[in-house]
Write a structure and sequence with these properties.
The complex is a heterodimer. Chain A is an all-alpha fold. Chain A is built from 16 helices and 2 strands. Classes of the chains: A mainly alpha, B alpha/beta.
Chain lengths: 325, 460
């Protein structure tokens, strides 16, 4: 894989110069004209659509959100700066702890059940000799479905009446009807189940691609050393996939910390706030009141989450740097 | 070489600019036909093909009478949790509706167009009952909307399920005890059907709990003589209402298995026969026919039981059609003409009433959905006689409601932080329905504290 530094070097006009030692390069005075001659203008023009798109739809809203988190505003009259008031408000809201607890619970359940599943399935699928393409398509299909459609479908499946789809299936094997999203205890696991189903396909495809890069000789050597199936997975497959596993792990943490779609569409945070996650609380701060919400608190909580995730990511990469070598 | 690169660069830039400029051209060409264009939102998402045809006929009729106005009708549903996003995002159409509880505040916030001049030109401007028009009047005395379809909360029921359970659909329950008894019979005799259910999520749980509490004589908010609002959800009637729900849910098991219903969700469940009785607005049959294709012959509605308490009454509400604050004066004028044509005239003008009824009937839409009078009872009764020939909901099915509603005391919705209050009460109702033993007292005290803090913050 090319690193971004390598890509930058290749992009320098007259590519060969890039491979020369720096000391040997002739010193050229940088002026706007030399910048244009070296294709700087063309580079800028080609980057412009990207810069405009990211600037308008991503960076500018982020800057506005940071500013808004220190303001009291109804988006109509002039905003007033209120210092750290919004952050204090969020910390004192009893729903804040509930949302943090629920998000943590979702992330933990998704980690325990959702993280190993794609890996196990990918390893099994890589061993399958016949109809491999069909299994890959079947695994990836949920990813292709529009997320809102699949959540609404599952909501129908989760009908808690004995005649509900899942409850009928459970009835065939003698299991009594389950409340699914209708009870405070079962709601979150039900959300995780759907989220895992919806997301596993994407990760499976990544693992399948990585598994093709594991050298077959390593398995042969392990076999010679007397390793069984489990031994081969533990001593060859997992260490070889280490890099990609580290990445999917942190991506999963970031993704689950931002879960919104499932609680919003399945339960609106209920029953009794048992599925109110941090992002749903952000939404409720901003939009629950039809007359205009607490946009300051909403942006403050968003920033707190972003800061936490950024910090977590840095710590995680520091920690895993050593293990990756 | 260099010049070729420069040409390529300029060409790329030109294409890019052209692409960006292309985005805004559609609006310009549309405005060049010399017509005033307005987007109106009179139909619910998921409306049936019949409903869309009926609407289309009405639009054509309006455009024929006003050849300089072009009307585009889109689907829209006011919901407490999405409206603020649409308002903040500027995605609302030129004409849209908001509930009685919101119009005054939105007007005072400068978020609605002032339509006083155009409103005064309508033929009914002086006929309005000041109390009704007040919901659309700003504190500056200007008019910001036109009210329509006031309703009282009612008990909707499925006559077919009543019959299946051996109950008489012409004799619906008259007290909460009778609702409970009938719900229990239905749950036992018609498996998979909730005997009685009410809404619980998207702020509707609080709305319906408030209705129940009002019907027992309680109030969720009290306004002192100095105008100070005190949040009073932790009262005897709220506890009585929650205890009643608890009995139905846990002792009788007559509320089914699904406890997360918002407005659209419970309508769907009722239309598909999963719920036999539910608390609804008296006009809900209009939506049931429009969005769920429900057969009005199966529909029954009666007044929601009100206790003997002197303060007991029935919660009422309604809609206000308002105009987008960003509209040009021409669009405002066109919008008011549309609202007057579509909402007001069928109440007061015989021709308009008959034409409207004919179109609705041809489109299989509710002609005689029971609402409260928008002007006065005499006008309302006269209107009923005009449309009687086209009525497509059997009058006998509506009789338990229409014969009793004028005897009930009407109670308006709580005025301060209504949606916040309803949202906070959602989880109290959900708690009672999903957990057997709930400390109701603690939950209600927490709601009082939370909403009172919001009310007090406004007064600082």
């Amino acid at each position: 894989m090319l690193t971004s530094t390598e890509l930058d070097q290749q992009a320098v006009p007259g590519g060969a110069a890039a491979s020369r030692p720096a000391a040997a390069r002739p010193r050229v005075r940088r002026t706007p004209l030399t910048w244009v001659r070296r294709g700087g203008l063309a580079k800028l023009v080609f980057m412009l659509p990207l810069l405009i798109t990211f600037g308008v739809f991503s960076w500018w809203p982020i800057v506005r959100a940071v500013v808004m988190s220190f303001q009291h505003t109804n988006l109509v009259t002039a905003p007033a700066f209120v210092g750290w008031d919004n952050f204090v408000y969020v910390f004192h809201d009893p729903m804040f702890l509930t949302a943090v607890r629920n998000t943590g619970w979702f992330a933990l359940l998704a980690l325990v059940f959702g993280y190993p599943l794609p890996l196990v399935l990918a390893v099994i699928m890589s061993e399958v000799k016949r109809l491999k393409g069909l299994y890959t398509v079947l695994a990836y299909l949920p990813v292709v479905m529009p997320p809102v459609v699949s959540v609404l479908l599952w909501k129908f499946f989760y009908d808690a009446r004995p005649a509900g789809v899942f409850n009928t299936i459970l009835g065939w094997v003698g299991i009594p009807p389950q409340p699914w999203i209708q009870s405070t205890a079962a709601a979150m696991p039900s959300l995780v189940l759907q989220a895992t189903w919806a997301a596993a396909g994407g990760t499976i495809v990544i693992y399948l691609a990585s598994l093709t890069s594991v050298k077959p000789e390593l398995y042969d050597a392990a076999e010679v050393d007397g390793a069984g199936l489990w031994g081969k997975v533990w001593h060859v497959t997992l260490p070889q996939l280490r890099g990609i596993l580290f990445i999917t792990f942190i991506l999963q943490i970031i993704g689950t910390a931002q879960v919104f779609l499932q609680p919003y569409l399945f339960t609106s945070g209920g029953p009794v706030n048992s599925t109110t996650t941090i992002l749903l609380l952000v939404f409720q701060y901003a939009f629950q009141n039809s007359l205009g919400g607490n946009y300051g608190a909403a942006t403050a909580l968003s920033l707190m989450l972003a800061a936490f995730l950024a910090l977590l990511s840095v710590l995680y990469f520091r920690l895993t740097e050593r293990w990756s070598d | 070489m260099k010049s070729r690169k420069l040409v390529a660069t300029i060409a790329t830039a030109a294409v890019g600019v052209g692409l960006l400029a292309g985005c805004s051209s559609a609006g310009d060409s549309a405005a060049k036909d010399g017509k005033v264009h307005i987007v109106v939102a009179p139909v619910l998402p998921g409306a049936t093909a019949d409903a869309l045809k009926a609407l289309n006929d009405r639009v054509q009729e309006f455009e024929k009478a006003n050849p300089d106005i072009d009307v585009k009708a889109i689907e829209y549903q006011w919901t407490g949790t999405t409206f603020a996003a649409e308002l903040a995002g500027g995605t609302l159409p030129d004409v849209f509706n908001v509930p009685f509880t919101d119009s005054k505040t939105l007007a005072n916030n400068g978020q609605l167009a002032d339509i006083t001049t155009d409103f005064k030109k309508t033929s009914t401007a002086d006929k309005w009952n000041k109390n009704v028009l007040d919901v659309a009047t700003g504190s500056n005395g200007k008019i910001y909307g036109i009210p329509w379809g006031p309703y009282a909360m009612a008990l909707s029921y499925n006559r077919e399920i009543f019959q299946k359970a051996g109950l008489d659909p012409d004799s619906p329950p008259k007290t909460l005890d009778e609702v409970r008894a009938d719900a229990k019979i239905i749950a036992q005799k018609v498996p998979g059907t909730a005997g009685y259910m009410q809404m619980t999520s998207g702020n509707t749980g609080g709305w319906e709990l408030t209705t129940l509490v009002n019907s027992l004589g309680g109030r969720m908010e009290k306004v002192g003589s100095d105008g100070k609002v005190t949040v009073t959800t932790n009262n005897d009637q709220t506890k009585q209402a929650l205890a009643w729900l608890k009995t139905l849910r846990w002792d009788d098991d007559s509320m089914g298995n699904n406890f997360l219903f918002d407005w659209g969700g419970i309508n769907q469940a009722f239309a598909s026969g999963q719920v036999a009785m539910y608390m609804s607005g008296s006009d809900v049959i209009g939506s049931l026919m429009q969005a769920n294709g429900f057969d009005p012959a199966k529909y029954g509605v009666t007044t929601f039981p009100v206790s003997d308490d002197a303060n007991a009454g029935i919660l009422s509400g309604g809609n206000v059609d308002v105009v987008n604050v960003k509209d040009t004066p021409e669009q405002r004028a066109a919008a008011v003409k549309w609202i007057d044509f579509y909402r007001t005239q069928p109440n007061v003008d015989k021709d308009a009433a008959v034409k409207n009824a004919q179109t609705l009937k041809a489109g299989n839409q509710a002609v005689n959905a029971p609402t409260l009078p928008v002007f006065d009872q005499a006008t309302w009764e006269q209107n009923q006689t005009w449309i009687a020939d086209y009525a497509n909901i059997p009058a006998a099915n509506l009789k338990p409601f229409t014969s009793g509603i004028f005897d009930q005391q009407i109670v308006p919705e709580p005025s301060a932080h209504t949606q916040d209050l309803y949202g906070a009460l959602d989880s109290v109702v959900q708690a009672v329905l999903t957990k057997k033993n709930v400390d109701v007292d603690a939950q209600l005290t927490a709601v009082d504290k939370k909403i009172q803090a919001l009310v007090d913050a406004d007064q600082h």
